[in-house]
Design goal:
- The chain is mainly beta and about 110 residues long.
- It has one domain (about 10-100): Roll (Archaeosine Trna-guanine Transglycosylase, Chain: A, domain 4).
- The chain is about 0% helix and about 35% strand.
- It has strands at about 10-15, 25, 35-40, 45-50, 60, 70-75, 75-80, 90, 95-100.
- The strands form two sheets. Strands 4-3-1-2-5-8 form a six-stranded mixed beta sheet, with no helix packed on it. A three-stranded antiparallel beta sheet has the order 6-7-9, with no helix packed on it.
- The chain is globular.
- The N and C termini lie far apart (about 30 Å).
- Mean pLDDT is about 90; it is low at about 1-5.
Length: about 110
């Protein structure tokens, strides 16, 4: 897991829904270079991640580096796979994930 750093008073916040998630949901909008304090829902421990991109409100950021074709985990479940490598702190959205939800061409396991 990424190293935890002490957040600054002006740090943005993000919520990690499940401890195994490799993405966090930003609360509010963020700008490249800003520190984001990420906490797992229901836990007091936090990690601080620097944004590599501008992010709209409530969008996802990577908690760690994610390899191409690696599952994107949110809610402790795969919501898709990385369509290219994604760096820690990078915006995670339709431009770099191939969703596995709401698709008629995939069969349930």
């Amino acid at each position: 897991m990424a190293e935890a750093r002490t957040p600054t008073a002006d740090a943005l916040r993000a919520l990690i829904i499940h401890r195994d998630d490799n993405v966090a949901n930003l609360i509010g909008a963020g700008r490249r270079g800003q520190a984001v304090r990420c906490t797992v829902e229901g836990e007091s421990a936090a990690e601080t991640i620097e944004l590599l991109d501008d992010l709209p409100s409530n969008h996802k950021l990577a908690r760690r580096d994610v390899a191409a074709d690696e599952p994107i985990l949110k809610y402790g479940l795969s919501i898709g796979k990385a369509s290219r490598p994604i760096r820690r702190g990078e915006h995670v959205h339709a431009h770099n994930i191939e969703s596995n939800r709401g698709r008629g061409d995939l069969r349930a396991p």
